[in-house]
């Protein structure tokens, strides 16, 4: 052991001890916030109180400054802690409202195998739910839906849109023809990396494997890469498996670094997406719908077709406006067998148990040819509470 190592060893041991204490305190804090959730079940108090969150952040920033900690660091740290608290409280309330959903084993169908983005999203979502996670990798969206419809799986996790490549139309088309209900959602960061099995560099790569959506999201990188053959795969995990099998310095896959590690692949380049803030939104579907507690922020997804007359879609959207309901997504897809006619998918912020949402559904049924609620589910988008920095920095 060198002299430097002799000096660092005891300091590193102290850091390890502090890290362990931090983890224990975070676990204790989560336990206390779960007790808060239990109290909110009794009082029907909303999960979030952003005024209190703001006061808490200002107080913590001031306390942190006295300890020599940067306000930006404190804010970032507690945004993550608050998000974790909110999501865990929401999951607890949802579990209490839907006791039949709690089971010792969650059989979850998703696209690809271990390491795919859908796999990572599914693991993330069910990590907050009771029961063991049983993975059921599939090779197509149709197979995923069929697994749940035939009771071979309890849930399916499906990507619905991406910030770079837009909506995933094939999933919308599958939703037209299923009786499954959307019971949840999550947004997962998509961090594309260039993965290789052999120690190589980009100049030697002649063949690139990835899912078609990934190629679309990384089109700028592909243009820079030059004359490389792109080979589409059913999933990012299939692409990684292919490169791991080839063990060639001329083959690479695009996928997540975490997924690549499962197949012994090395990332030689990161952040490949056109948009650096690249996220995919996933939906979770099941055979039965869920009840969303009124104190949990909710979304509702509808599918409808309007009558064939001028202004019919505008008239339908005015029903939402008149009931003060915010629309977050509008997507049109062709109706199979009806040329030039469209089915509209709409996401709105609202709970089916609310009076305004019930009025809106009733109003839409009266003026549309077809209307179906695909699901009402908790939203997992936790908007960070804004901190008035001037107030935080006051003595």
What is the CATH topology descriptor of the largest domain? Answer: D-Maltodextrin-Binding Protein, domain 2
Q: Write the element-wise H/E pattern from the N-terminal end onward.
A: HHHEHEHEEHEEEHHEHEHEEEHEEHEH
Please, how many domains? 4
Uncertain runs are none
CATH homologous superfamily of the largest domain?
A: Periplasmic binding protein-like II
> Which whole number gives the mean pLDDT?
90
* CATH C-level of the largest domain: Alpha Beta
Number of helices: 13
The end-to-end span amounts to 48 Å
Strand percentage, roughly? 25-35%
Give the C-alpha Rg.
Answer: 24 Å
What's the main sheet like?
A: 6 strands, mixed
């Amino acid at each position: 052991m060198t002299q430097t190592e002799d000096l660092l060893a005891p300091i590193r041991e102290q850091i390890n001890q502090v890290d362990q204490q931090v983890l224990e305190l975070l676990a204790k804090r989560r336990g206390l916030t779960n007790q808060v959730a239990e109290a909110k079940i009794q009082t029907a108090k909303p999960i979030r109180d952003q005024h209190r969150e703001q006061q808490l952040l200002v107080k913590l920033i001031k306390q942190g400054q006295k300890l020599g900690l940067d306000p930006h660091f404190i804010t970032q740290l507690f945004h993550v802690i608050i998000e974790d608290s909110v999501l865990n409280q929401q999951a607890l309330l949802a579990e209490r409202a839907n006791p039949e959903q709690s089971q010792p084993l969650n059989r979850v169908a998703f696209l690809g195998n271990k390491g795919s983005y859908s796999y990572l999203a599914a693991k993330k979502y069910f990590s907050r739910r009771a029961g063991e996670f049983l993975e059921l990798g599939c090779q197509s969206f149709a197979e995923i839906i069929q697994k749940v419809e035939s009771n071979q799986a309890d849930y399916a996790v499906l990507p619905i849109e991406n910030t770079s490549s837009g909506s995933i139309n094939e999933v919308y088309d599958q939703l037209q023809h299923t009786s499954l209900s959307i019971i949840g959602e999550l947004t997962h960061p998509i961090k594309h990396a260039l993965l290789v099995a052999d120690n190589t560099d980009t100049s030697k790569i002649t063949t690139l494997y990835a899912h078609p959506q990934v190629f679309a999201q990384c089109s700028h990188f592909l243009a820079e890469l030059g004359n490389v053959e792109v080979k589409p795969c059913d999933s990012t995990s299939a692409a990684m498996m292919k490169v791991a099998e080839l063990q060639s310095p001329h083959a690479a896959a695009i996928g997540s670094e975490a997924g690549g590690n499962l197949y012994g692949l090395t990332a030689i380049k990161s952040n490949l997406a056109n948009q650096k803030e690249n996220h995919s939104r996933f939906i979770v579907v099941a055979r039965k719908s869920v009840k969303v507690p009124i104190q949990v922020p909710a979304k509702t997804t509808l599918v409808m077709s309007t009558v064939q007359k001028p202004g019919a879609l505008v008239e339908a959207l005015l029903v939402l406006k008149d009931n003060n309901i915010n629309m977050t997504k509008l997507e049109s897809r062709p109706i199979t067998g009806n040329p030039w006619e469209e089915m509209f998918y709409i996401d709105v912020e609202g709970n089916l148990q609310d009076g305004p949402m019930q009025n809106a559904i009733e109003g839409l049924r009266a003026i549309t040819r077809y209307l179906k609620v695909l699901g009402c589910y908790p939203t997992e988008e936790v908007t960070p509470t804004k901190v008035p920095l001037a107030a935080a920095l006051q003595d």
